Amino acid sequence: MRALLSVSDKTGLVDFATMLAQHGYELVSTSGTLKTLTDVGLNVFAVSEVTGSPEMLDGRVKTLHPKIHGGLLARQDLPEHRAQLDEHGITAIDMLVCNLYPFEATLQKEGLEPIEIIEQIDIGGPAMVRAAAKNFASVVVVTDPDDYVAVLNDIQSGEVSQQRRRSLAAKAFAHVSTYDSLVAEFLRQEDGEAMFPHELSIGMRLAKTPKYGENSHQKAAAYQRLRAGTLVPGILKAERLAGEELSFNNYLDADAAWQAAQLFDGPAVAIVKHTVPCGLAVRPTLAGAYQAAFEGDPVSAFGGIVALNRTVDLETAQLLRKVKLDIIIAPSYNDDALEIVLKKKNTRVLTLPNRSEERVVELDIRPIRGGLLVQEPDITPDDTSAWRVVTDRKPTNQEIADMDFAWRMIPLVKSNAIVFAKDLAVVGLGAGQPNRLEGVAIAARKARDKATGAIMASDAFFPFPDGIERAIEAGITAVIQPGGSIKDDDVIAAANRAGIAMIFTGRRHFRH
Question: Are residues 354 and 446 in the same domain?
Answer without folding.
Answer: no
